Write the structure tokens for this entry.
Amino acid sequence: MAGTRKKRNKWLQRKHLFLWVKIMTRHYIIPIFVPHFGCPHDCVFCNQRKITGLSTDVTVEEVRRIIDEHLATFKKDSFIEVAFYGGSFTAIKKEIQMELLKVPYEYKKEEKIHNIRLSTRPDAIDDDILGLLKDFKVDTIELGVQSLDNEVLKMSERGHSDMDVYESTRLIRKWGFKLGHQIMLGLPGDSRKKSLDTAKSILEMNPDMIRIYPTLVIKNTALEDQMNEGSYTPLSLDEAVETSAMILMAFTSRNIPVIRVGLQPTENIQMGKDVVAGPFHPSFRQLVEEYVFRLLFNEYVTRNRIETKGKVLVFQCSNTKTSIIAGQHGRNRERLIDDYGFKKVKIIPSIKKDNKVKIVIDNEERVIDLDEEIKLYVNNNPI
Ligand code: SF4
């Protein structure tokens, strides 16, 4: 009975928080990068100083300054989250973790911020650490899983195994944190099948969110040496897009948010700057979503035996979907004409529902529900 009441209270608290977040107008993230800080490893692909653009370890004063500077620019009644990104937060010395966490903890107590999130390694999690994070009111922990294939983990010199991921996931859940998983595609020893198997196992762990990062070769890393020696070949852009699309659809069909696809471009995370090779694109996610749309459209047209040759196709969709349907530089539109023989393809941003696309061919209207199409696709093509 007490257990049921506890569960119900938890559910009500979550529902309350959800409504509260919805009422607020914006969700802001204050990123604080902890480059390589405390990380005892050197994964072959990692040069955190390059990825974060920082070379010094962050101080308590900087944490306070970063938060204050961001707060000054945010609109009132926003949902604000402080996020420690970069190195492996929980591998930092305990005293330093506490000093750093104390700052957002105080802001959270004063209700100036609402959430605290951090990312870390799967083998840097145990009951002691999670107890400490609870004391400092951390909400979300993102685990750098990267792969669940032990050969890939070994060749990437991750220094942990798949068992560390399963165990840390279990502990994070037990302590009631929100859980994120980050995976990488195209690591040394990886294959399309291994990446999809990793995604499948992660689906079974049911995280609250995931991030998908195709591996990029960053300057001054062991991976760059391996590539130059010829023992590592990065994924092509097309391969990375295709595998990311399969994973994106698999998680979307299960209502697990994919909060990032592809490394965020910065001034230095650009091809020819710190990125020396690999499937980099400044709008990588858009490429993946365009690809998903092509797949779904093809399935829909084939399944419904729609006559396309010489016809005019009109899409009516939401504003946000127009660029995905048209594709970058109009590529999707051109392919629709080439692949299906449409005479003309028009795209009109005229409906509000983001997950619905109306198609009109010869005055015949059909509505494609993208969420339902993704479910159907994943059902017919499980990863
Ligand atoms: S664990 Fe993370 S921070 Fe440490 S070397 Fe590997 S990728 Fe870099």
Observations:
- The longest strand covers residues 27-34.
- Residues 14-281 form a domain with the TIM Barrel fold (CATH 3.20.20.70).
- Residues 36, 39, 41-43, 46, 48, 87-88, 121, 144 surround iron/sulfur cluster (CB under 6 Å).
- Residues 2-23 form the longest helix (22 residues).
